[in-house]
Design a protein that fits this description.
Length: 264
């Protein structure tokens, strides 16, 4: 199976990007897919959510030109991390200086991850529009936009969608993106209203929502993924609607992403 790259992007913070990257990436590894998580955020929270120390993996790979194989860490069976820390800023500096820096990043990532037999690569981006975000778009087969269901957040989603469309127009990236509603509170009218608006605007590009769940915040503090800590919680399994049907949750999103990878 070829390598599929997913970039998780939003210019707003606190929308669940890192949590989604770690949860979905670790879920893929549990299904037997060799998966690489790439931390492009200087905060380095991918490592901390996996119970690991922050590390200059991204800097060593791109800025110092070390092979990808020597800069990644095996976090779990089938799950690897290219960790980040504050030295990730040097990667941004090099990209600004080099004319084709973003394209070189994208090409190297795809080529080297495929060479290591990675089935899936998930990139976690900082909440800002910078060269790394553009490079991630260029590298990606699909862009996932996690978003809270609030008015100001949905306004930001439209800006990101335009950025993706414009980047795709100027390059060879596919420009395919999906929206992942997070922090869904089924007892709050506003979240239902905003979810309805999101579906009306984007149709099938709007994925089922992830219910708000304190278990997601508790798991990293114990050095565990949500699959290890509370696999039956609402964030994973979704919520039951009035018709008795389970809706949303990371398990359902994982199934959607696997279908994309397998071309179903």
């Amino acid at each position: 199976m070829k390598t599929t790259v997913f970039a998780f992007i939003n210019q707003k913070g606190g929308v669940g990007k890192t949590t989604s990257v770690v949860t979905l990436g670790s879920g893929m590894s549990l299904r037997g897919y060799k998966t690489l998580l790439v931390d492009c955020d200087p905060q380095g929270h991918v490592a901390t959510q996996l119970g690991m120390e922050k590390a200059p993996g991204l800097r060593r790979w791109y800025y110092d030109d070390e092979p990808l194989e020597q800069t990644i860490t095996e976090a779990r069976e089938n799950l690897y991390a290219l960790a980040g820390d504050k030295t990730t800023d040097r990667v941004l500096g090099r990209m600004r200086e080099e004319q084709w820096g973003t394209a070189q990043f994208a090409d190297r990532l795809r080529e080297e991850s495929a060479g290591l037999g990675m089935t899936a690569v998930l990139l976690d981006l900082a909440p800002s529009l910078n060269h790394l975000q553009i490079a991630a778009m260029l590298a990606s087969d699909y862009v996932i936009i996690p978003t809270r269901l609030r008015y100001t957040d949905l306004d930001g989603v439209n800006e990101i969608a335009r950025s993706i469309t414009e980047t795709a127009r100027r390059s060879q990236m596919p420009g395919r993106f999906y929206l992942l509603p997070t922090f869904f509170d089924r007892v709050t009218k506003e979240t239902h209203q905003r979810l309805t608006e999101l579906i009306a605007a984007f149709g099938r590009q709007a994925l089922p929502p992830i219910p708000q769940d304190v278990k997601l915040a508790e798991a990293p503090g114990r050095g565990m993924t949500i699959w290890e800590y509370a696999p039956q919680c609402a964030a994973v399994q979704g919520y039951v609607n009035g018709g008795g049907k389970a809706v949303g949750g990371y398990e359902q999103i994982l199934g959607e992403m696997v279908s994309l990878m397998e071309g179903v």
